[in-house]
Amino acid sequence: MTRGIGKGPRAVAALLVLLLGAVFGSLPVSATSDAISQTPPSTDWIVALRPEARYQFQSLHTLVGDAVLKPLEYVPGTYVARFIGRTGAADGVARLLASSAVAYVEPDIRFTYQWEPNDPLLPNQDWVRTIGLPDAWSLTTGTPSVVVAVVDSGVHADHPDLAGKVLEGYNFLQSGSDVSDDVGHGTAVAAIIAARGNDAVGIAGAAMDVTILPVKVGDADGAPVSAIANGVRYAVDHGASVINLSLGAESESATLHQQIQYAYERNVPVVAAAGNDPNRPTFPATYQEPISVGAATHDGADVAPFSSRVSRVDLTAPGMSILSAHWQEGVGATWETVHGTSFAAPMVAGTVALMRAVNPGMSIEAIRAALTGTARQTYPAGTLGGGAGLLDAAAAVRQAYRPAFARTWEAADQPVAALATQRTWLWGPAAFAVGPEPYVETQHGHRLVAYFDKARMEVTDPHADASSPWYVTTGLLATEMITGALQLGHNSFEQRSPANIPVAGDPDDPSGPRYATFAGLVDVPALDEGTVITQTLDQDGRVGFDERLAAYGVTAVDYIPETGHRIASVFAEYLSSSGLVLRDGQYQTGPLFDPAFYASGYPITEAYWARVKLAGEMRDVLVQCFERRCLTYAPDNPEGWKVEMGNVGRHYYQWRTGQYPPEGAAQENPVPLARGPQW
Length: 679
Hints:
Blueprint: E1 23-24, E2 27-28, E3 44-49, H1 57-64, E4 68-71, E5 78-82, H2 86-98, E6 102-107, H3 126-130, H4 133-137, E7 147-152, E8 170-171, H5 185-194, E9 211-216, H6 225-237, E10 242-245, H7 254-265, E11 270-273, E12 291-296, E13 315-318, E14 322-328, E15 332-338, H8 341-358, H9 364-374, H10 393-417, E16 433-438, E17 446-452, E18 455-459, E19 473-474, H11 477-483, E20 485-489, E21 492-495, E22 535-537, E23 543-545, E24 556-560, E25 565-568, H12 569-575, E26 578-583, E27 586-591, E28 608-614, E29 617-625, E30 630-633, E31 643-645, H13 648-657
Helix pairs in contact: 5-8, 6-7, 8-10, 9-10
C-alpha cells in the first residue's frame, strides 16, 4: 500500500458579540482571532430530566455517583454535574445517557466571543450583524487574490479604510489612470465591500481582505452608458473576480447588456442595484445575467420603501442607515450614513467575494442559487421587490464549500446512494450536522466541518488548492476517542476522558470493547507476519485467545512502520479494493480508497475478535482501530457488508457534545444524494 496520511467620528469601543449560536447541533465553537480559548473541563456536564421524571432527583444522584450536583436555579429539572476525575465523568455520562429519566446531557460549554475585527466604528455597522457577516468571517475574510471591480464614480484610494487595498484602475471619462472620486459614491461602495478590517481604523468591509479594482465611469453629473459598458469590459479583461454596479437607469442599453453578457460568459458575476424608485424598473439589474439586489430596512425586516418593486430582484440586503467610508472635497476622509440600493448591492458583492475566496471557480448560477437558497424570509414570501429574502452571508459562504465536500463523498458513496452497486457506505447517506468548529491554524480560528455516520469531513484552509486530495480531510476521530485528547489545532489538545462508547455493533451492546478499551493497547507490539488472528478482547481490556476463531482464516499482514502495527488481512484487502466509483461524472471501476489510507489513517492497534451484539444477536466481530476510523469484520454478514467502517462520526459527535446525533440530514447537508448516472 502507498503512504496516504500526512499529518473619523468619535471612536467607540469595539463590540464583542456573544455567539448565541456557539453550538450548531451542540458542536462547540471557538473564541477570538488570536487563539482558541480553552473549552471548560469536560468534568462539568449539564443534565436535564424529562418533565415527567423531575421528581427522580435521588435517582439522579445514584446515576452520577460521587459527582457534585448543582441545580440551575431558574431552569427546573436541570443540573450541573461536576465529576471528580475523568473516569468518573466517562462512566457517569454513559449512565445518564442510558437513563430513560434523562432528556439530554451536554458539556457545560463556555460560550466564547465571536471573532470580530477591532475597527472602532464596527458597533455602528448594524448591517454587518443583520446579514450574519461575523459567522462568515469566522471561516474567511477573503484573500487579496480576489479582486472586486467597483464600476462607479471612482474610489478615493487614500481613505484610511482603503489605503493599500486599491489597485491602479482606469478613468473612462478622462481616459487616464486618475480614478479619484469626486462624488463619494464609489468610495462608500468600495468600503462596504472591502474596507480594511481589524486595523483599529474606521469600519470593516464585508470582504475585508480582498482587493478593489477602481473603474471610474461617472462624476457628479452621472455616468454615461458608454463609459459603464467600457468599464465592465475592462474589469473582466483585467482580472476582476466580481463586478459591482451600484448604478442604473430606467432605459435598457444593448451596448451595456452585451458587456454584461461578456462577463457572464466568462464566469465573472455582476452584482447590480435594483434601483431607488419603487414604481420603475432599473437596468442593468433587471437583465437576467446580473445578481440583482434590492434594499431592505436597516434591520432586514422589510423591503425599504424606496426600493424598486418592479425590477427583477434576486434578494435584498440592508439599504437604510448604512455607515460607510466617505470622501468629500474640502472635508477629506470621513464616515457617513448612506441610503439606497447602491449600498445594498456591495454587501452582496462582498459576500460573493468571500464565496469566490473559498471556491474560485464557482459558477454564477451556483452563486445565485446559494444566495437565494439561503436567503432568510424576514418578510412575507412574495413581497414585491423582496426577491428570495434577506441575504444570509454566513449561510451563503458555507454553501461555497459544498462542491468540495460533495466531490469527496460522491466518488465512493454516490454509486451506493443511486443503487448502482451493493456495498456498505464509506461516509454515510448524508451529513447530519454541518457548521464551524474551533481550530487554531485557520484564518480566524474556525474551520467548517460536516459530520457523517462514519466520519467527519473538514476544510481547514479554504484558500488552499481545492484540487488537492487533502483539501478536504477527515479527522483523527478514533485516535481522539481512544486517547481522550480532543484536537483543537495541529499541536493543541484538550484532555478529556476516552470515549465509553461501543466501537462496534448496536449502541446498547453490553459486552463489546469501547474506544476507552483500546487506550492501553496502542503500544502493544505488532503480531508476526502471517499470524492467524485468534486474539480476543473484552470490554475491560483483557486480551485472550480463542482457537475457534482460526477457522475464519484472518491473518496479520502489512506492517505499518509509522505506527508499529500490522493490518488484518481482511482490512488490507478492503483498503486496497476496487469497485464502482463516480469520477468526472461517470461510473467506472477504480480504487475505493485513493490514496489508500486517506479515509482510515494508519492502524493504531492490532486487530482483535470480540463478542458483539449486532442486529440484536451476539456474534463474532473482528475490530481494528486506525487513526481516523475503526474497521469491523463480521464474517457472517452478506458480501459487500462483511467489512465496514464503524460509525465513528456518530460516536465522536456523541463523545464531543454529550448528545446523541440528530436523525436525518442536516438542513445544510453538503452532499447530493443519487446525483449523476442512474442504473
